[in-house]
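job 3f2a | input accepted
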Amino acid sequence: MARPYTRGLHDLGNGLWAYLQPDGSWGWSNAGLVVDGDRSLLVDTLFDLKLTREMLDAMRRAVPAAQSIDTLVNTHANGDHCFGNQLVGGARIVASSAAAREMAEVGPARLAQLMSQAEEMGEVGAYLRRIFGAFDFDGITLALPNETFDGETSLTVGEKQVRLYEVGPAHTRGDLLVHLPAERAVFAGDILFVEGHPVIWAGPIGNWLRACDRILAMDVESIVPGHGPLTDQAGVRRLRAYLDYIAREARRRYDAGMPAFEAAQDIALDDYSSWGDAERIVVNVHSLYREFSGDQSPPDVPALFAQMAVLANTRRH
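job 3f2a | predicted structure (317 res):
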């Protein structure tokens, strides 16, 4: 049965909650809470301090154990899943080793500086203001993970067992899944976007497909995506089909010698017309082209945002 997609805290039962932020577009991420008795675990913080405070206040009003968060798990390094970490003072902060390294490379000060220059950046600046203008990156001191792991590990929240599975590099370099086997639930981070186009910052795409398969092999009822409404296995299958489709379409165009941006404009997305942020196909095709060619250099993020701005502007008019 479909659950409502409304802003705020949603009780999943069995001591699990999801915090949702419609519409799930750039920066509007989800988070989670796991409690047992007086013990608590938070899955991700939000993109800025104001939003994270509002989330923590909502959790504390609803759940006594959330007054003091024992453990924070960051599912990956993107700021909309970790920039609020400093507000969870004293918590054990857990992430994959790769995610922790990536977090240290791109901090909130860089985004704050970029947004301060957006007025002077023409079309790409207008695009950045549209997608990130609602967030305040000032005053953030990123609290990095103080405990890392590679592969997989187990945590406990009271009597609840929590399994962490590293499935990156995929969306980013260090993605992980948070699985509660007994509660039949998984917090998927940005391995799962629902009703929005995913974005492949790292790849390879095969890792992301295998991560989807891992979720599909789980006996779970509640699936909390990194962005978008709560879902079930059907949502995972839909995302997997998208990834498989764009990989095949990009390969055809790569083999034909079509430039990456031209390929991004050429790939038909009619079957996903209801999904938001279609311009992310730019990043996805560039990532796939680098993978096809064996190019292991990092993505040119400013150039990719410039191309996404062009494509988004074209499709809005």
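job 3f2a | The first strand starts at residue 8 and ends at 13.
job 3f2a | closed
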